[in-house]
Amino acid sequence: MSTIHFIGGEKGGVGKSVMSRALSQYMLDQNLLYAGFDADQSHNTLARFYPQFTQAINIDDYEGADQIVEKAVTADINLVVDLPAQSERFLNKWMDDNDVASLCEDMNVNCVYWYVVDDGVDSAGLAAGFLGRFAGKMPTVLVKNLGRGDDFAALDKALAEKGVSANYRLELPALHAATMRHIDSLNLSFWGAGHISEGDEHLTLMERQRSRVWLNKVYAQIRTVVGF
Question: Which tens digits make up the pLDDT trace of 155-209?
Fold first, then answer.
């Protein structure tokens, strides 16, 4: 059975691409058939770090979005779709106009939406609105990115006021900021960050250790959702 993992969040800069990269690395480390779609044309982060597995698509174009489902029905595969900010409206229209939910059910394809937030008030309001609108359309995972704040009281308040919740919640641990910047500057996958120790482009011993410890913590959170 294939699964499409949409990684989104209406606010920019909350860490959607970090979540996409971590989930992609998880699938690869589990030796699962995996492919990525990078729909964030502002920086194409997923395609940059996992180029051999990822193709860029234009999510504002039906033909671009169609490729996601077309790929999902070719084999039992895990697809990670890195969405840009403010993509909900088009994604919703594409799903409604094509009745994607029914099609995926008929084709034995699961869909999951991972909604990433920081601890800001604006992010909280957008998340509450999204969960209210997407209730029943597909399972949702609310991802609190601890690398973008650690006080999510505003989020909890917004969800309580609207009476909405996600099917799953997880906390994306924060990685030491300088280590993350070093990983990004060297264009390393998260596997490469923790294991490459030779050549000109690698992390220091302690940076590699931090990266491995962090990724194991992320994997523990992911397992609470995917179950494997």
Answer: 999 999 999 999 999 999 999 999 999 999 999 999 999 999 998 899 999 999 9
Domain that holds residue 123: 2-175
Q: Is residue 182 part of a domain?
A: no
Domain of residue 134, CATH code: 3.40.50.300
CA-CA-CA-CA torsion for 193, 194, 199, 201, nearest 10 degrees? 20
- For 27, 45, 107, 193, the CA distances from 71, given in Å and listed in that order, are 16, 20, 12, 29
Asked if 218 contacts 22 with a C-beta cutoff of 8 angstroms, the reply is yes
Helix, strand, or coil (residue 228) = coil
As for how many domains the chain has, the answer is 1
Confidence (pTM): 0.96
Strands (E), 107-209: 109-117, 140-145, 168-172
> Does residue 224 fall inside a structural domain?
no
The number of CA neighbours under 13 Å toward the Cβ of 198 is: 0
Is the residue at 161 inside a domain? yes
Question: What tokens does 97 get?
Answer: 């106009």
Q: What is the mean pLDDT of the chain?
A: 95
Amino acid 3 reads T
Whole-angstrom distance, CA of residue 188 vs CA of residue 211: 11
Residue with tokens 């790929």: 71
Contact 210, 194 (CB under 8 A): no
